[in-house]
Amino acid sequence: MFNSKALRVILCIVAVVFFGNQIYSFAYKPITTVTAEYQTVTQGFNISGIVIREEKVINSNKSGALHFVLANGERVAKHGTIANIYSNADASVIVNRIEQLNFRIKDIEEMQSYNDVEAADIKLANNKVNNSLNTMLRGIAAGDFSSFEADSSELLTNISRRQMITGEQTDFSARLDDLKAERDSLSASLPQPVGNITTDRSGYFVSNVDGYENVLSCDNIESITPEYIDTLKAETVEKTAVGKIVSGYTWYIAAKVDISESVKYKTGDELTLKTTIKSTPELKVVLEKINTSNSENSAVMIFSCQQMNSELAVMRKGSFTIINSTYSGLKIPTKALRVQDGKTGVFVRSGMTVKFVGVNVVHRTDEYIICEQEVSNDSVLRLYDDVVVKGKRLYDGKIIE
């Protein structure tokens, strides 16, 4: 009886000790690390700019269903067609579907012409699927459905390519035949357009008109003052407006700033603006004008630029950063820095021990530092090192329990 009770007590103690040790091992981490990654960071001055371009609104009184033959921001030649006019909206729907089918057909044919599956990178393929899915979901979450068709097509393409790499599906011949059959059937039923809309100048076609086309002009940038920007209003857009043509090689960005910031620059400065535009993360610009206000408390900095693409052609307002300095190197948290024997460095994980390595800091903030990347020896911080950001009583060669 006694032995039975004693045995149960002993077993309970053993169980408590065992599970307590498991919980402690799971929860307790002797060190916390982050990976040293190579990054480029910039320091500069943030501005909000309004874009000024040479623009001409295209108007049309023609009746019927309009179908644009150009994508938003696509280049068009002088006297080129920007839209066809059909007698009813059904024809425009058919044309859209034919364009979608042609895109998928071309995409599949390109995939089938690439046979080196063994050389393909499955990790890269997975990343492309994830990135295209995230891009599509972010657009939906933000309520921006303008690029949904392009985003969904890119996702489908990346999934198909991953299937070819993994061997899930290598023959898309049946799918290709179905797409071609549907396209040919739709093409046979498509009526001829009853008219079209052309442009009298070359440039980039933009389907939306915002009312600033005749308000903002490249010819009077010297009159754009802080007061002018404060009272800037768009004109009423005519119902006949179907789009516009962005032409000219030079366009401008006007930004209202505090006068104390504007004096740090001078006209003629060649600068770089960091953007939020995917296709053009940086713009090379020249500071053309600094127009001050009557009160001299603020100013308008006007930059000229000659880079142009489809995304820039449709932008009216945007956030930019005037880049004053750029730093590249290994980025780690500032709290990882330590001093050992008068030498500045960090502890990195090396197997079951920690090792102290020196760093050469090229840029520092309260949150992070940028260190020079060196590959000369093992006593310096290297790319992808596990850097210790939290740990007690650390020293070179300490064994991690």
Explain how this protein is built.
This protein is of the alpha+beta class and 401 residues long. It is 30% helix and 34% strand. The protein has a 6-stranded antiparallel beta barrel. Strands 3-5-6 form a 3-stranded antiparallel β-sheet, covered by helices on one side. Helix 2 packs antiparallel against helix 5 (173-189) and helix 3 (122-141) runs antiparallel to helix 4 (148-166). The chain is flat, with a radius of gyration of 31 Å. 19% of the residues are buried.
Task: Summarize the entry for a quick read.
With 401 residues, the protein is of the alpha+beta class.
Spell out the blueprint of helices and strands.
Elements: H1 2-27, E1 31-35, E2 37-59, E3 65-68, E4 75-76, E5 81-86, H2 89-113, H3 122-141, H4 148-166, H5 173-189, E6 195-198, E7 203-206, H6 226-230, E8 241-258, H7 259-262, E9 270-274, E10 282-292, E11 298-305, H8 310-314, E12 317-333, E13 338-340, E14 343-350, E15 353-358, E16 361-364, E17 368-371, E18 386-391
Antiparallel strand pairs: 1-18, 2-8, 2-12, 3-5, 4-7, 5-6, 7-8, 8-11, 9-10, 9-12, 10-11, 12-17, 13-14, 14-15, 16-17
